[in-house]
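Saturday, quiet lab. Running sequence design on the structure tokens for the scaffold JK sent over.
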């Protein structure tokens, strides 16, 4: 397609704002031909080119800008970054340091600049004290200090001061409430190289205790590698490696703040300096996955070597991308292969269970969760979700005794967990069992998650099932206000209005439910209610347990709500 300059500019900027850096990197250079001195357009073009991995094109543009438009280039910080990047790749550390000193000491430059300069001083001057002086201000930054200390230790190790490096790594460990995987990797690497098995075990024990209950599919392979006794290469073998580590670290921090575009830029810069930097590949893949660019994510994950400690994590992420693309058969095959290949791993069968449950293969899902649970020697509080999701699979496959036992086990591990309380208590109401306890449990769930419409709906629907119509209306109105476009919640409110004698409002609410695309088997039932209303309930009795099964109830909707929201719950649970 032939683009006008203005068209290329508008389309390119729009693509950049959407995170489509490939299109932006294609179009913005065309716009730049008409405004080569525009610092904002230079910055935007470089941003797109770097994020799309076109670092060479970005460096070429940065050099052109410096030569032809030095004033404009000075206003575009990415010009400075790329000039430093080019010098680092050519081993010209003095030149790179000169460029890095021009980075603005604000925003991202406030953190990346000092760390880059520290590594460049280490490379050009070989002076530990001068390098560490650059890092000193960062070591008092709240939340940033441990990462700055890791860089200090890495520089000391790189310049041949391993004893000082050990002290710095320990200081970083002491400053961390939970030891980050990067610290475990670099500190552990030095301990292995020094043959300090006792120190390594002490570090691993501290890591496991500080991260108890937090599954980490990267830390597991890393621990295995450190304990293997295999010879370890230094974590940082060159200045380029050190700066690449800075870039990937910045990407981690930005990703934690959901600044996806900025995080991708730094991951790409890290990969340019160190093409086999697997953590940067994982980060880039994660950014693509979170921004729904699944094919790009899969390609990035699959570029990770099978021997890498990041390989298993990358495969799980590939399976998740395939699931999100509705390539469920391909995802299932990958997860079944992974489940069979490592009979100790929990994550693969757990993710397999999530996949099967999401495609309504409830018996098979329960089997997958059983495999995962069987691989846990002593379930911890964080394992509640495995029992909860197996319980939902059992309930949806009409195996209530097994489901009830799993829900109780989940509550034993994590008392007052609102999703478990909601599912178990609602089913008890449906079954006319433990009614007083069930209502208390549902109220506890609502108190814990007052913003979640489907949980508030459960409490309202329980009151409806027990004939408490005024209470039902109160909670169901609140549920619909929280989730106004949920067909089931609107249908429930219509039923409650009818029983409370508010027939016009009931028909309106049922009509709203029909407009929000209810399940196919519910459409005719709701249409019948719009036409005929609900059958009378004998005086002094509550609706029969099955009275509203077709339009709601645990089997029809609340179980479905829990099941369908399970994917979201699972993500939140980790």
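Result came back. Writing it out in full:
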């Amino acid at each position: 397609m032939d683009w006008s300059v203005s068209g290329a500019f508008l389309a390119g900027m729009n693509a950049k704002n959407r995170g489509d850096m490939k299109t932006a990197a294609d179009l913005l250079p065309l716009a730049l031909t008409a405004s080569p001195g525009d610092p904002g357009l230079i910055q935007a073009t470089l941003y797109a080119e770097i994020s799309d991995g076109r670092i060479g094109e970005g460096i070429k543009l940065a050099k052109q800008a410096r030569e032809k438009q030095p004033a404009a280039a000075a206003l575009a910080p990415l010009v400075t970054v790329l000039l430093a990047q080019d010098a680092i790749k050519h081993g010209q550390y003095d030149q790179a340091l000169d460029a890095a000193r021009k980075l603005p000491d604000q925003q991202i430059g406030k953190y990346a600049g000092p760390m880059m300069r520290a590594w460049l001083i280490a490379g050009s001057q070989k002076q530990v004290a001068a390098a560490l002086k650059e890092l000193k201000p960062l070591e008092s930054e709240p939340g940033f200090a441990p990462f700055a200390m890791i860089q200090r230790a890495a520089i000391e190790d790189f310049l041949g001061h391993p004893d000082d490096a050990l002290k710095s790594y320990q200081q970083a460990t002491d400053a961390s409430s939970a030891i980050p995987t990067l610290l475990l990797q670099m500190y552990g690497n030095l301990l292995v190289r020094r043959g300090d098995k006792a120190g390594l075990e002490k570090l691993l024990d501290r890591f496991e205790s500080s991260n108890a209950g937090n599954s980490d599919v990267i830390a597991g392979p890393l621990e295995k590698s450190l304990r293997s006794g295999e010879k370890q290469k230094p974590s940082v073998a060159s200045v380029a490696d050190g700066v690449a580590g800075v870039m990937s670290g910045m990407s981690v921090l930005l990703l934690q703040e959901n600044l996806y575009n900025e995080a991708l830029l730094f991951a790409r810069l890290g990969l340019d300096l160190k093409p086999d930097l697997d953590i940067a590949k994982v980060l880039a893949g994660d950014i693509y996955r979170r921004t729904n660019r699944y094919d790009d994510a899969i390609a990035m994950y699959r570029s990770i070597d099978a021997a890498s400690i990041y390989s298993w994590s990358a495969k799980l992420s590939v399976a998740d991308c395939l699931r999100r693309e509705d390539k469920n058969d391909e995802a299932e095959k990958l997860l079944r292969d992974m489940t069979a290949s490592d009979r100790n791993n929990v994550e693969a069968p757990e993710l397999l269970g999530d996949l099967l449950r999401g495609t309504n293969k409830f018996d098979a899902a329960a089997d997958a969760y059983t495999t995962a649970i069987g691989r846990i020697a002593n379930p911890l509080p964080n394992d509640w979700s495995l029992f909860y999701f197996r319980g939902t699979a059992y309930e949806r496959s009409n195996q209530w005794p097994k489901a009830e036992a799993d829900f109780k086990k989940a509550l034993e591990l994590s008392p007052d967990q609102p999703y478990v309380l909601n599912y178990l208590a609602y089913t008890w109401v449906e079954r006319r069992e433990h009614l007083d306890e069930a209502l208390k449990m549902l109220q506890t769930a609502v108190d814990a998650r007052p913003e979640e419409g489907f949980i508030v709906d459960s409490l309202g629907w329980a009151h409806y099932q027990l004939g408490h119509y005024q209470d039902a209306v109160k909670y169901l109105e609140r549920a619909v206000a929280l989730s106004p476009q949920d067909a089931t919640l609107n249908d429930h409110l219509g039923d409650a209005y009818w029983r409370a004698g508010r027939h016009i409002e009931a028909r309106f609410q049922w009509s709203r439910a029909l407009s929000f695309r209810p399940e196919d088997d519910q459409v005719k039932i709701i249409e019948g209610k719009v036409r005929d209303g609900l059958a009378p309930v004998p005086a002094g009795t509550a609706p029969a347990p099955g009275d509203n099964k077709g339009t709601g109830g645990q089997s029809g909707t609340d179980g479905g709500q829990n099941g369908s929201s399970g994917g979201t719950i699972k993500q939140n649970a980790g």
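Notes for JK: The first helix runs from residue 5 to 18. Residues 544-574 have pLDDT under 50 and may be disordered. Ask whether to fix the surface positions before the next round.
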